[in-house]
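Entry 14. Ran structure prediction on the chain below.
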Amino acid sequence: MSKHIVIIGGGPAGYVAASHAAAEGARVTLIDPHSLGGTCLHRGCIPTKTLVESCSLLYKMRHADSYGLQLTGEVKANWTAMQERASYVIGLLNRGINGLMADRKVEHVQGVGRVIDGRSVEVDGHGVVKGDAVLICTGSVPMMPVSCMASKDRVATSDDLLKWKSLPSTLTIIGDGVVACEFAFIMNELGVKVTIVAMSERPMQFIDKDISLIVLREMRRRGITFIDNCKVDGLVCDQSSVNVLSNGVLVDSAERALVAIGRAPNTSGLGLEKAGVATGARGEIVVDEMMRTNLDGLYAAGDVNGRLALAHAASAQARLAVGHMLGRDPAPLDDTTIPWAVFTMPEIGSVGLSEEKAVEFGHIVSVGKFDMRGLGKAQAMNELSGMVKVVIDRATGRLLGAHVIGAHASDMVHEAAVLIQQGATVHEIVHTVHAHPTLSEAMLEAAEDALGQAVHKPLKHKASHEHALP
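Output, structure tokens:
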């Protein structure tokens, strides 16, 4: 007899869990009051990356002369048309998910689910749904401190910004994380004067410092103001502006503000306290390496468990949880081998340890770097900004981390991700012939540089400038 798995939440964790469980022969009930796809599809990854692509094309068209092209007339952004395109993409992908669920005979119950115990969920308007196991995949929500709730019309979260009917002339972004930085570049390219007010000294303090400093350089080059080491007391609105206060002093003023200081686990209304589910300091559901909670039969995957706020990590955790429910004895996930991407301009792909973390963990490291402008393909594409950096253990040669910023960085990083997952050395990259001319050659050159052997980079004891790879 097949098992019945009940899933609360239909985002990248929930619908992937449903698809995987059904493919394994389980009966699946998926509970979500909204259209399937979650924040990632409807308010996060997909709409923002659609906007990024529009902005990237806009930037290239504005610099068409550098490609030997001449455009007649002014190239302008149409915010409404960009939103419509994002909506079209969302709708297309949503229909795809619905089709997959129908193909696998997954029952989608539209309602709010509350946990009763590890095998029962109460759903508004549908009574109690009982199964052999329950998986919570309700994701996260943007954080909005009370001190920043100055005006619903002029102070937004990332969810709200995507619904704006028009764009402001000036925008203050509170925060220095992924969401803050991505929107800074998007709004800047659309003609909005952007200021970031950050608590840290540089953008995305958690990433490798060399990569972060390139992001900061690109912000300044494009006219984005970055105010560092600033703790915001709150926001105050007057007739025309949103004012940012720090220690009682005005530090910035803009037509609107975006609060992007992070996301919190979405556990409201789940009935966790009544059911006796253990939660952490930030409200996250506490899980073990198999995504099990303290209640027998109850699991939690994705942002709601606070482990790693990435859509693809949520999907991987969901597959792991389902595998354990079905007795497949899955191997635990190693969070350090999961790659991530940031769609700034240029974009970032990263996996493994930063140089700073590797040293902190006791490794004696060697690093290799190669600037994108040293590649013939990058020169041909006129995509010169960025670099590849690899971090290796000096004693063993084991690849500890790889960090890419530049065109197609989010695609390039997976070569290193596979090797780090396998515990491979930097020599595996060096001994792999890379096609020419490609951007991936930068990974090879960085790996060679870590060994002091980069072909298209001056030897470190010589003072000469780099030449583009022919």
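The chain has three domains: 4-142+264-335, 146-261, 346-450. Will compare against last week's run tomorrow.
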